[in-house]
Amino acid sequence: KLPGELSDGPAIGLDYFLLDLFATALILVPLERIWPRYPDQSTFRPQWTLDIIYFLSTHIPVQVVSFLILLPATEATRYLAIPLVAQFIASLPILIQFLLAVIVADIAEWTIHFALHKIPFLWRFHSIHHSSKELDWIAGSRSHVVDDILVRGFILVPMMFCFSHEIVLAYLIFVTVHATWTHCNFGPSVKWLEPFLVMPRYHHWHHSSQTQAIAKNFAIHFPWI
Question: What is d(CA 181, CA 175) in angstroms, rounded to the nearest whole number?
C-alpha cells in the first residue's frame, strides 16, 4: 500500500516516450517509403538504433526541459519586458502573432546555430548532430543534450518577452514537427515555396559534407533569413 494519496500533478514516464516515438514513426516512415529522396536507403539503416537512443535520451526530455527554461524566463519578463510591445502583439490576429513568433525564433535560432558552427568549443557538441551519414525522420534526434538546451533556451527566452504562453506553446509544437520533417528521407518539394520555407531538400544540403555546403544555411524555418 502506498502512503498518502496519489497526486493529480504533472507526471511523465517511459510510456509517454514510447508512444511519442511510435506515433512519429507511424506517420513519417510510410511517407519515406512511398516518396523517398534516397530510394536505396533502408528504414533500418546503419546506426538507426543509435538514433533511437538519442531520441529517448535527449530529444524527448528536452521537451520537458523547455518548460523548466520557461520558468525563469517568465519571472524575468516581469522586470525586463516592455508592456507596450507585448500588448501591441497581443492585439494582433492569432495567425499574425504566430508568424511573428516563428520569425523571432528563427532569428534567434540562426544566431545560436551560427555560434554552434563557428565557435570550436560549441562545435564539439553540435558536431554530434552532423555525424549522421544518412538522414531520415529519426536522424534529427541525434544531438548532444547541451546542444539541445542551448538552442531551446536561446530561442524561448526572447520569445517570452513578446508573446503569450499559448503562442510559445504553439511554436514548440510547430518546431518539433517541422524540424523532424526537414530531416526526413522525403523527396517531393514545392519549388515555389522553397525560397520562403525550409524543406527537406534545403536542410539536407545544410548537412552535406560537400565543401560548398559546410557551415551555411543556419536558419531552421525561413531560407531568406
Answer: 10
